[in-house]
Write a structure and sequence with these properties.
Layout (H helix, E strand, L loop, with lengths): L2 H6 L1 H5 L4 H4 L3 H21 L10 E3 L12 E3 H17 L4 H17 L3 E2 L2 E2 L2 E3 L21 E2 H17 L4 H13 L16 E3 L3 E2 L11 H8 L18 E4 L2 E4 L5 H4 L18 H17 L18 E3 L2 E3 L17 H4 L6 H15 L4 E2 L2 E2 L13 E3 H15 L2 H7 L2 H9 L8
Antiparallel strand pairs: 1-15, 2-5, 3-4, 6-7, 7-8, 9-10, 11-12, 13-14
Helix pairs in contact: 4-5, 4-14, 5-6, 5-7, 5-14, 6-8, 7-8, 7-15, 9-16
C-alpha cells in the first residue's frame, strides 16, 4: 500500500476499521495482529503488579534478563505499556476491567510514590519499589544513578493521556492523569535565556548541560509542554530548535538522527494532513526519512550482504558488542550489518508499503531464529548469524503502537481526543487536517 492509498483510508482508520483488511490484504493484517499480540505480551508480563512499572528489557523466552537479575524499569517503556493496555482491551487480548485496573494502579503509584522533581520523573526506577535507579543498576544511589529525564517523562505522559482518552468514562483515571500532568513544572526545565528544554536534571549536578536544540524525538515533549495546564512554556518554543536537513538521493527531509526520533512522538500526535506554521508536513517528513533509511541500508549491501531492499533497519538496539545507539544515514562507524526489526516496525504508520514487506520477509527468511515469545528479538545479524538473546521494551512498544495506528488509527484517536494535544497544535499554527 503506498502513502496515497493509506491516506485515502484515513477516515476508516479513525473509525477503528483495520486498514489492511479493508484494503484487501487480510494476510498482512493477520501477520500484524499476531506480532502485536506477542509484543503486548511483554508488557503484560513485565509490568509489576504493585507499581505498574515496566522492565526496560528482558529475555526472549520470557525469563530473567540474561546478564543478571537487575530489576530496572524505564519510565518511557511504562508509558508505552499504558498505551498497550488500551490496545489489548480494545482487541480483547485482556479484559477491559483488568486493563482499567492496571492503568489505575500505575497512575496511582506514579502520583503518590514514584520519586520526582517538580513533577518530572527519573529515567530509571527500581521495578518493584520505584526507587531511583541507574541504568540497569541493582545498587541505587548517587554513583551512576539516573537523571530526571524530560523525554522519558514526556513519553510516559503520552501513555497516560492515551489511557485517559481511552478510559474517558473513568473519573479516577482522569483525576490521576490530570494531577500528574498539572504537577509537571515545564517552565523550570527551560535553559535560562532560551525557549529550549533541557535534557534533564540530577540532584548531584543540577541541570544536564544539553538541551533539545535539534529535530529529535522531543517534538512531542515540546507540544506537551506548550499545552500544559500549569507551568507551560511559550508556543514560540516550537520554533526554538533547528530544522537541519538531510539529503540522500532524490529525498530531502528534516532530521539528522536515528529513525526512532521520527517515530516516538508520532505514535501519539497525529500530524496526517497538517502542516505547522512554517509549512512543514511532519508526517510526510518522517515518511521520507523512512524511505531514505531503507535505501541507505540497501546501499550497504556490498559491504554487509545481509542488508537488502527487504531486510533492513538500524536503530538503537542490542548488538554483539552490547547496546549500541546507532542509525543512519550517515554511516555510523560501529555499523556491522545488524538488523533491528523495530526500525521498519516503528514506521509502519508512515510507509506500510515498505515496512510490512520488510517484517514479513524477516519472518519468512529467518523464522524461529529471530521470532520469540514477544515477537521479534531485539536485533540480529544476517551476515554473521548473531541473534540477540534479549528484547527491549522500547523497540517492542514502538512496533506495537505503530502497527495499531496503521491498522486502525486508534492510538492517534485516543490520544488526540484529549484537549491538550489539540490545543498544542493550534497554538503552534497547525492547520485543520486535510482529507
Amino acid at each position: 500500500m503506498n502513502r496515497r492509498a493509506f491516506l485515502r483510508l484515513s477516515a476508516a482508520a479513525w473509525a477503528g476499521v483495520d486498514v489492511l483488511r479493508a484494503a484487501g490484504r487480510p494476510a498482512d493484517d493477520a501477520f500484524l495482529d499476531d506480532l502485536q499480540r506477542r509484543s503486548f505480551g511483554y508488557f503484560a508480563d513485565k509490568a509489576d503488579a504493585v507499581t505498574g512499572l515496566v522492565l526496560d528489557r528482558g529475555c526472549t523466552n520470557g525469563g530473567p534478563y540474561t546478564l543478571d537479575d537487575r530489576p530496572t524499569a524505564s519510565t518511557s517503556v511504562t508509558g508505552f505499556g499504558l498505551a498497550g493496555f488500551c490496545i489489548a482491551a480494545e482487541r480483547g487480548w485482556m479484559g477491559r476491567p483488568e486493563a482499567r485496573e492496571r492503568v489505575r494502579t500505575t497512575l496511582a503509584f506514579l502520583l503518590q510514590h514514584a520519586p520526582n522533581e517538580r513533577g518530572w520523573f527519573y529515567h530509571w526506577l527500581h521495578w518493584k519499589t520505584g526507587a531511583r535507579a541507574g541504568a540497569f543498576a541493582s545498587v541505587h544511589g548517587p554513583a551512576g544513578a539516573s537523571e530526571v529525564s524530560t523525554i522519558d517523562t514526556a513519553l510516559l505522559l503520552a501513555g497516560i493521556l492515551t489511557a485517559r482518552g481511552y478510559f474517558s468514562d473513568d473519573s479516577e483515571i482522569g483525576r490521576l492523569a490530570n494531577a500528574i500532568y498539572e504537577r509537571i513544572d515545564f517552565a523550570w526545565m527551560l535553559v535560562p535565556g532560551t525557549d529550549r528544554l533541557s535534557h534533564g536534571w540530577t540532584p548531584e549536578q543540577g541541570f544536564i548541560p544539553y538541551s533539545w536544540d535539534e529535530y529529535s524525538e522531543a517534538s512531542g515533549l515540546y507540544l506537551l509542554a506548550i499545552a500544559a495546564p500549569r507551568h507551560p512554556i511559550p508556543p514560540r518554543a516550537w520554533a526554538a530548535w533547528r530544522r537541519t536537513t538531510t539529503a540522500y538521493g532524490s529525498y530531502r527531509y528534516i532530521g539528522t538522527t536515528p529513525i526512532f526520533t521520527h517515530q516516538y512522538s508520532q505514535l501519539f500526535f497525529d500530524f496526517r494532513g497538517r502542516r505547522d506554521a512554517d509549512g512543514v508536513d511532519w508526517f510526510g517528513n518522517s515518511s521520507a526519512a523512512t524511505r531514505v533509511h531503507r535505501q541507505f541500508c540497501a546501499d550497504l549491501h556490498s559491504r554487509f550482504p545481509g542488508y537488502t531492499s527487504e531486510i533492513w533497519g538500524i536503530t538503537p538496539s542490542r548488538s554483539a558488542a552490547g547496546y549500541t545507539d546507532w542509525g543512519g544515514p550517515p554511516l555510523d562507524p560501529r555499523t556491522d550489518g545488524t538488523v533491528v526489526p523495530a526500525a521498519p516496525g516503528g514506521s509502519l504508520m508512515f510507509t506500510p508499503d515498505i515496512c510490512v514487506p520488510a517484517l514479513r520477509a524477516m519472518q519468512n527468511r529467518f523464522g524461529d531464529s529471530i521470532s520469540c515469545r514477544y515477537g521479534f528479538t531485539d536485533a540480529f545479524n544476517p551476515t554473521t548469524g548473531w541473534t540477540s538473546p534479549d528484547v527491549t521494551g522500547l523497540n517492542l512498544g514502538v512496533t506495537l503502537l505503530a502497527a495499531e495506528n496503521l491498522r486502525t488509527g486508534n492510538l492517534w484517536r485516543w490520544f488526540m481526543a484529549n484537549p491538550e494535544p489539540q490545543r498544542a497544535l493550534n497554538l503552534c499554527g497547525f492547520g485543520t487536517p486535510r482529507a
